[in-house]
Write a structure and sequence with these properties.
By secondary structure, the chain is an alpha/beta fold. Helices cover 37% and strands 20% of the residues. It folds into 2 domains: 1-117, Glycosidases (TIM Barrel), CATH 3.20.20.80; 135-234.
Length: 234
């Protein structure tokens, strides 16, 4: 799987995903509505764009995963809690699902992505779109200290999600950025994912962002542990 981040309103180009599909990679397209009103989305003001997007997905002739407005239980995005009411978020999600599905058909894996709970985050369940609108639940979570493990970073999110759904869970975003003991976190991550019922996989955030450098090649012990764990993961 490869996560592809795009702003809502950006057309889907076959060039974005065709090379991945040819290599047997499942693209996870994440549409982020920066500067876009979710009320306007729910009201249908972007339906022409959504229909074009759905038609482009249909023409790919392959399955892709699609996510919209991730981490809405956090407060850092305009579509998150404290900025957009939960009912508006849910209405926008359902509207996007319905319009794109009518145009694209049933090949889309719909991924509802939330952040691991933390002090000050909002209820995960308040923004649950409903079982008929979601295929997988994506979880994002990052260690903050050298003592953090799967149990402290991601297990609480799984508990919160299981209160609303038994859908398959994908660890959709995780990584380490200059955290002591990164190799130990990697080991606990794969062990926790493998031992937790319903967790179907792990996506590593191998990227440099304003929040830190998450590339494993900068931490040889963590990279070696990642290679070992990924090779043996089932």
């Amino acid at each position: 799987m490869l996560v592809i981040y795009r702003s809502f309103g950006t057309p889907l180009s076959a060039a974005d995903v065709a090379p991945d599909l040819a290599c047997g990679i499942l693209p996870l397209l994440q549409l982020n509505p920066y500067g876009v009103s979710l009320t306007a989305i729910a009201a249908g003001r972007y339906d022409a764009y959504l229909r074009r997007y759905g038609a482009a997905l249909r023409h790919l002739g392959a399955r892709v995963a699609l996510s919209f407005a991730p981490e809405a239980n956090g407060r850092w995005y305009s579509w998150g809690c404290g900025h957009t009411p939960a009912a508006v978020y849910v209405a926008a999600w359902r509207h996007i699902h319905d319009v794109i599905t009518r145009a694209a058909g049933r090949r889309i894996i719909w991924v509802w992505d939330v952040n691991s709970p933390f002090p000050g985050s909002c209820s995960v369940g308040d923004r649950w779109p409903g079982a008929s609108y979601v295929d997988w639940v994506g979880l994002d979570g990052y260690p903050q200290t050298g003592e953090d493990t799967f149990a402290t970073v991601l297990a609480p999110a799984i508990v919160a999600v299981r209160a609303v759904t038994n859908k398959p869970v994908l660890i959709a975003e995780t990584g380490v950025s200059r955290v002591p003991g990164a190799a130990a976190f990697v080991q606990s991550l794969f062990a926790g994912a493998e031992d937790t019922p319903g967790v179907i996989g792990v996506t590593w955030f191998e990227y440099t962002s304003p929040h830190g450098d998450y590339r494993l090649e900068n931490d040889p012990p963590a990279l070696a542990e990642f290679r070992r764990e990924a090779r043996n993961y089932h």
